[in-house]
Amino acid sequence: MDKMRIDKGDWLVVCDGRKALILENLGDEMFPNLHTREVHEQPNPSTSAQGTDAPGRLHAATGGARSS
Q1: Domain span holding position 36
Q2: How far apart are CA 16 and CA 5, in angstroms?
Q3: At 65, which helix (H) or strand (E)?
């Protein structure tokens, strides 16, 4: 595999599930100088803050009668 080549003025995107960074190379190919152009964040509250749902009901697969 060849080495990655980042020329002057190229943009680089680094992201995961919560944040995305857009970086610009202000240096050259030999000595990159990455500066942040934009930052995008996705809020991700804790599980307890998102709430829970009641479990669903399961009916018996055989027989048509249901009890209340």
Answers
A1: 1-43
A2: 22
A3: none
Segment (H or E) for 22: strand 19-25
Statement: residue 65 has pLDDT above 80:
no
Report pLDDT digits (tens) over 6-54: 999 999 999 998 899 999 999 998 999 999 999 999 888 887 787 777 6
Give the predicted TM-score (pTM) of the model.
Answer: 0.60
Q: If you search the block for the tokens 């002057």, which residue do you land on?
A: 8
* Residue 54 placed within a domain: no
How crowded is residue 23: how many other Cβ atoms within 10 Å of its Cβ?
19
In-domain check, residue 48: no
Within a domain: residue 60? no
Number of domains in the chain: 1
